[in-house]
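Exercise 7. Given the encoded structure of a 240-residue chain, write a plausible sequence.
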C-alpha cells in the first residue's frame, strides 16, 4: 500500500486542480507575467505554482511529523483511521461538517493578513515575488487541501508527509498552468463536470486511509514493531 501513496497524492491534486481553477485561477490570471513573452509567462507560472507546492510540502511535513509522534506513542493506527473517517464525513455530509467547523477569529485575521500581502505581491515583476505569492496562496483556506493534509498525517513521517503534499501540489499544476495559457478551454461546463468526480476521489482516499490504518499500523499493545520496547534492568549484586 505504500507504493500507492504517490499515485494517491497526484490523483488528489489533479482532481482538486479544477476546483483550484475556479478559486485560485483569477490570481494566476492576474499575474503581471501575462504581459510578457511566452517564456516569461512560463517562468512566472512555474514560480507561482512552485511556491504553492512548497507551502503544501511544508504543511505535509508538519502533519507528517504529528503522525510520527503518534506512531512513537503507538496511536498512529487510531489517528490514521480517524483521518480517513473525517474525509468520508466531508464527502457524505459536507454542509453539516462545514456548519460545525467555524474558524476562530484569530484564524480569520490571519487569512485577511495573507490576502493583503498577496495583493501587494500581485504587482511584483520578480521571480522571488511570484514564488512568495504562490507560497502565500498555499495558506488560504481550501477544503480539498485540508483533506490532502489530513491524508499526509497517515504517512507517519515528516519526510513522507512533505513528499505526499509536494506531489499533491504537482498534481494541481497542469490545470493551473493551462489556465494561464489556454483559459478559453476551461469553460464553466467543463469545470462542473470534473468537480463532480472530486468527492468520489476523496471518498476513495478516505477508504484507502482507513484500510491502511487497520492493516498496516499495529494497535497499542498489539505486539507490532515499534509499539512495545522492553527496558532492560541491570541487577547489581551486593557483596556481603
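Solution.
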Amino acid at each position: 500500500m505504500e507504493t500507492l501513496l504517490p499515485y494517491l497524492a497526484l490523483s488528489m491534486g489533479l482532481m482538486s486542480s479544477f476546483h483550484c481553477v475556479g478559486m485560485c485561477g483569477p490570481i494566476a490570471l492576474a499575474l503581471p507575467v501575462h504581459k510578457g513573452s511566452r517564456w516569461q509567462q512560463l517562468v512566472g507560472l512555474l514560480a507561482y505554482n512552485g511556491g504553492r507546492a512548497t507551502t503544501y510540502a511544508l504543511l505535509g511535513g508538519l502533519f507528517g511529523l504529528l503522525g510520527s509522534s503518534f506512531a512513537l506513542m503507538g496511536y498512529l493506527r487510531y489517528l490514521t483511521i480517524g483521518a480517513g473517517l473525517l474525509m468520508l464525513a466531508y464527502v457524505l455530509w459536507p454542509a453539516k461538517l462545514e456548519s460545525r467547523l467555524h474558524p476562530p477569529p484569530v484564524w480569520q485575521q490571519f487569512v485577511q493578513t495573507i490576502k493583503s500581502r498577496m495583493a501587494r505581491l500581485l504587482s511584483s515583476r520578480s521571480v522571488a515575488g511570484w514564488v512568495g505569492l504562490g507560497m502565500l496562496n498555499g495558506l488560504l483556506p481550501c477544503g480539498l487541501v485540508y483533506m490532502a493534509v489530513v491524508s499526509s498525517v497517515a504517512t507517519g513521517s515528516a519526510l513522507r508527509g512533505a513528499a505526499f503534499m509536494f506531489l499533491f501540489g504537482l498534481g494541481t499544476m497542469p490545470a493551473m498552468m493551462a489556465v494561464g495559457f489556454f483559459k478559453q478551454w476551461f469553460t464553466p461546463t467543463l469545470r462542473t463536470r470534473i468537480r463532480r468526480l472530486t468527492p468520489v476521489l476523496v471518498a476513495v482516499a478516505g477508504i484507502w486511509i482507513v484500510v491502511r490504518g487497520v492493516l498496516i499500523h499495529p494497535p497499542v499493545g498489539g505486539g507490532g514493531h515499534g509499539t512495545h520496547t522492553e527496558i532492560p534492568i541491570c541487577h547489581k549484586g551486593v557483596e556481603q
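Remark. The chain has one domain: 2-215. Students should compare their own answers with the one above.
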